[in-house]
Design goal:
It catalyses: (R)-pantothenate + ATP = (R)-4'-phosphopantothenate + ADP + H(+). With 307 residues, the protein is an alpha/beta fold. The protein has one domain: Rossmann fold. The protein contains nine helices and nine strands. The strands form two sheets. It has a seven-stranded mixed sheet with strand order 1-9-8-7-2-6-3. Strands 4-5 form a two-stranded antiparallel sheet. A hairpin with a 3-residue loop joins strand 8 and strand 9. Helix 3 packs across helix 4 (96-110) and helix 7 crosses helix 9. It is globular, with a radius of gyration of 20 Å. The protein binds adenosine-5'-triphosphate (ATP) and pantothenoic acid.
């Protein structure tokens, strides 16, 4: 990609040099937690990319806190803590949720007395019944498939300090919103919000998700690589699905594997790639930071917004 003028671009080696050298080395427990949710995560990436990023986030977070305090003093309001929200955007299957969970473990490690929580915007997709009613089943993930008003209300409640907020839960396994199950967000200091739409500006809304995010990250990669990652994950889903008739992918999992993979490829091409090209990629240059990945999920370049 050609670099936009309002970003500084760094190679991996340049970025690594910003590490404020392991003042607080990761414990075996934190490393175990990282490996537990994805044993393919490179610990070199953690050291070279994520630890400098955590230091940058600390700067952002501390400044945010001070500004909120000064504003409250100016407005003669009692001091109150406003959660800092980190948004993570990018294509389906680019690795947003993996990056978000990694950040969650690292923030827990480095921000010892802070309450760190994570949510995905998938929970704000309309349930399949509603998507069918609106004839949007083949538009899942597109802007109109989300209840954006509910997502904005949720973020507003988080910022307003509502002590306990319920959010709906999406399951890839049933390919739907889980009935009667919720996530509960309880007054975090930092909330990570992960989802393809965190940088979007839907035309039917006056307030956007990005109005609530204090630092945004776009996870970027070439579309043909993301397709490989999508299909690898699809195959993995099939391997777990064939033991579970309740699983959405069960009929594909017990059938012909080539046919199932052809179906996966079609879903990528007709839905997720289209969404990437039309609605997700155009939001890239709104991010505070762009993390670019190459073969094997290796991070090779980082772009940081100057202004
Ligand atoms: N850093 C990484 N190292 C190795 N594998 C990774 C890494 N990041 C993601 N993956 C793999 O790539 C695939 C997609 O990752 P992930 O599920 O995190 O994507 P996503 O962007 O959250 O997708 P979705 O939008 O569908 O929820 C998964 O199979 C995951 O294991
Ligand atoms: C739930 C989303 C939209 C985003 O995570 C995505 O994983 C999805 O289900 N897309 C629809 C097409 C598909 O991949 O099945």
């Amino acid at each position: 990609m050609s670099d936009p003028i309002n970003y500084n671009a760094f190679t991996r080696a340049e970025w690594r040099a910003f590490s404020d050298d392991a003042k607080l080395p990761l414990t075996q427990e934190s490393l175990r937690q990282i490996k537990a949710f994805n044993d393919r995560i490179s610990l070199q990436d953690v050291q070279d990319i994520y630890i400098p990023l955590i230091h940058l986030l600390r700067l952002q977070f501390n400044h945010y806190r001070l500004l909120q305090q000064d504003k409250a003093t100016f407005l003669q309001q009692p001091a109150h803590r406003v959660p800092f929200i980190i948004g993570i955007a990018g294509s389906v299957a680019v690795g947003k949720s993996t990056a978000a969970r990694l950040l969650e473990v690292l923030l827990n490690h480095y921000f010892k007395n802070s309450n760190i929580q994570l949510i995905t915007t998938d929970g704000f997709l309309y349930p399949n019944d509603e998507l069918k009613r609106r004839q949007l089943m083949s538009r899942k993930g597109f802007p109109e498939s989300y209840d954006m008003a509910a997502l904005i209300q949720f973020l507003n409640d988080v910022k307003a300090g509502v002590p306990s907020i319920k959010a709906p839960l999406y399951s890839h396994k049933i390919y739907d919103i889980v009935p009667d199950e919720f996530e509960t967000i309880t007054a975090p200091d930092i909330l990570i919000v992960e989802g393809i739409n965190t940088l979007q500006l839907p035309t039917n809304e006056q307030i956007y998700v990005s109005d609530f995010t204090d630092f945004s990250i776009y996870v970027d990669a070439e579309a043909n690589l993301i397709e490989d990652w999508f299909l690898e994950r699809f195959e993995l889903l099939l391997e777990t699905a064939f033991r579970d008739p309740e699983n959405y992918y069960y009929p594909y999992a017990i059938g012909d594997r080539d046919e199932a993979m052809a179906k996966g490829k079609k879903v990528w091409e007709d839905i997720d790639l289209k969404n990437l090209e039309e609605y997700i990629l155009p939001t890239r240059n709104r991010a505070d930071m762009i993390i670019h990945k190459t073969i094997g999920h290796r991070i090779d370049r980082l772009l940081l917004r100057k202004y």
